[in-house]
Structures are given as C-alpha cells and as structure tokens.
C-alpha cells in the first residue's frame, strides 16, 4: 500500500479509535440550490426568438409530413439509386425514412426546446403523501395543473399552439398513407390487362405469334399479349393478369354458344388465372375438356364457358374474344369482358 493511502494520526483518536466528524448531522439535506433565471425569463426578445425557433421546428415537421405523402405518390418502389454508404437503395424507401424521421424529430425537438426555454423551470419540492389522495390534495393537483398550463404559455403563445396542432394533425396522415402497401391504390388496375383490340397472341415459350394451325385439337397452349417481353421489369406484374390459355375443341362439343362465337374454329382463349385465389390453371383433361387448378382443385369446364364444376372458385374463367387477322395470326378483339382472378369485383 502506498503512503498516501495509509491512515494518518488525524484519522484516528487515541488508542486507534476512529475519529468522528465535527458536525452533528453528516447526511443533512442541503436543500435546493438558489434558482437562476434563464435569459428568456428576463428578456422578452430572447423569449420571442425561442418561440420562433419552436414554431419553425413544428412547421418543418408539417412540411416533412407533406413530403412523406408526396414521396409515396412521386417515386415508384422499384426506382433505385446509389447512396453512399448504403449502396443501391429504393428512392421511395429512402425518402419515406428521411421525411418521416424529420417529421418526428422536429416535433420532439420543438417540444423539448419549448419546455427548456419557455415553460417555467422553477424547482418545487413537495413532500410525499399517502397513495390515496384527499380532497385537499386533489384540489391542489388541479390547481397545479392550471398553473402549469398558464406558465407554459399554451393559451398566450398562439403561434406555438397553432403550429403544434398543425404538426400533430398532419403527422398521423403518414400512417394512413402507409395503408397503400396493403394493396393497389383505388384505381382500376385490376380491372384491365394488357390485352386490347389488335394485340396478337404470342406463344409464351417461343415468343412467336400464334396461327390457328399451331393449336391442335385436344391441346392446351399458353399465350401472352403482343408487346410484352420476358426481360421487361414489370413482366411478372403484367403476366399475372394477362396470362392466357388456348384450347382447341371440336365445335360440336362446345356447349356454350357465346364461347363458340368468341373463338375461332373451336379455338377458345380463357384467362389462366384461377378465380379462387389467383393460382395458374394448367392441368387439362382432354376427354372431358376439364381444366384443374392445382392449388385447391377448382375445376372448370372449357366446353361450357369455363364454368366452375367443382371446388372453391367463385365464377367462371373470363374468356378473351379472338379472331384471325389478315396475316393469318390469332388476334384479340379487346380485353377480357370482366376482371381476371379472384372475385373482388363481384362484391364492389
């Protein structure tokens, strides 16, 4: 042990007894230090500057919330950009994070600055009381609350109050806008596909236009609309709605007259998307002209307008009206007459 840590004679009384401090109560409560007023308490111009600072922070929060909503509309989710040091990120996600972060930060920073510079900071000591408050204590609480509200300047400083209300009112709109990710925006995207009048039927495998002789009796073929390429960035989105299956049935075996009229020489074109939950229908039974969805076994009769004969599907597969153009290629005469896939539209 070093000499500086050794007990000295001053620390001990005679015969090695420990010395006692001179004062009577070594743990006496020193009390609160004298209150020191802030600059804003004695200078109204400083108080006004703080008020404008807080209002500016609340205003920036409002603008950031508007920017959050605008970003949702302006930037597609698949638009990428290189941002150091994050690398390649979605511009939409980056802007949503920045604007929402700024909106939340400015509300918090404004509230903290308001409390530290403008609200009363006089230290008040209060004795502990029983958990159950008596009438006098409750009256004191209400009085303290009223006093705190008056000292905060909430009623007197209208600029602060109004900008705070504006920031808090706009901020929840960010959460409402996030509901867009639960599904498409309320437009008619699900009611239309890439099919249209004059669009040739393209073989999905060879990517070549189809002629009637390419569809043999009893066969099942798959097609996509002309202009859609497999290397397109939105191919999966579009083919999920426009996927088409072609079947050739002897005209005498086709029960539904509308289906016969909408086809060409027994060649019928139906949506490949199951009307239950949107699985691809592809299992064909030549003898019965039935096609089966492998997900939940919904079965459709292609010889009878693709009506449902078994399973949970809600309605028939939509049919595409086709004909042969002057060049001898199979061609669509329009889009599907009704939306493809699950029957959301029947409950509209």
From TrEMBL:
Pfam families associated with the record? QcrA_N, Rieske
Tell me, what is one Gene Ontology molecular-function annotation carried by this entry?
2 iron, 2 sulfur cluster binding
Keyword Electron transport applies:
yes
Q: Gene3D superfamilies from the xrefs?
A: Rieske [2Fe-2S] iron-sulphur domain (2.102.10.10)
Q: Which family does it belong to?
A: Belongs to the Rieske iron-sulfur protein family.
Q: Quaternary form?
A: The cytochrome bc1 complex is composed of a cytochrome b (QcrB), the Rieske iron-sulfur protein (QcrA) and a diheme cytochrome c (QcrC) subunit.
| Protein name as catalogued | Cytochrome bc1 complex Rieske iron-sulfur subunit
Source species of the chain: Streptomyces coryli
């Amino acid at each position: 042990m070093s000499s500086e840590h050794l007990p000295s004679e001053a620390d001990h009384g005679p015969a090695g007894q420990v010395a006692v401090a001179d004062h009577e109560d070594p743990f006496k409560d020193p009390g609160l230090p004298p209150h020191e007023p802030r600059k804003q308490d004695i200078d109204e111009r400083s108080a006004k500057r703080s008020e404008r600072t807080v209002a500016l922070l609340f205003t920036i929060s409002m603008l950031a919330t508007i920017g959050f909503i605008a970003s949702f509309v302006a930037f597609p989710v698949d638009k990428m950009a290189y941002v150091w040091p994050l690398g390649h990120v979605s511009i939409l996600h980056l802007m949503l994070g920045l604007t929402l972060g700024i909106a939340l930060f400015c509300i918090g920073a404004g509230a903290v600055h308001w409390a530290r510079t403008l609200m009363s900071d006089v230290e008040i000591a209060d004795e502990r009381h029983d958990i159950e408050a008596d009438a006098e204590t409750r009256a004191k609480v209400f009085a303290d609350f009223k006093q705190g509200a008056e000292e905060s300047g909430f009623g007197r400083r209208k600029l602060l109050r109004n900008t705070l209300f504006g920031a808090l009112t706009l901020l929840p709109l960010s959460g409402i806008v996030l509901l867009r990710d639960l599904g498409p925006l309320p437009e008619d995207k699900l009611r239309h596909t890439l099919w249209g009048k004059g669009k040739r039927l393209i073989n999905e495998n060879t990517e070549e236009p189809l002629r009637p002789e390419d569809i043999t009796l009893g066969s099942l073929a798959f097609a996509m609309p002309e202009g859609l390429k497999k290397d397109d960035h939105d191919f999966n989105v579009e083919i999920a709605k426009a996927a088409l299956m072609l079947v050739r049935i002897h005209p005498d075996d086709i029960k539904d007259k509308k289906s016969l009229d909408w086809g060409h020489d027994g060649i019928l074109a139906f949506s490949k998307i199951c009307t239950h939950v949107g699985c691809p229908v592809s299992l064909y039974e030549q003898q019965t002209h039935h096609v089966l969805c492998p997900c939940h076994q919904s079965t459709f009769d292609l010889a009878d307008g693709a009506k449902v004969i078994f399973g949970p599907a809600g309605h028939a597969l939509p049919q595409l009206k086709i004909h042969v153009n002057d060049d001898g290629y199979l061609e669509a005469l329009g889009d599907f007459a009704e939306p493809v896939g699950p029957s959301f539209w029947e409950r509209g």
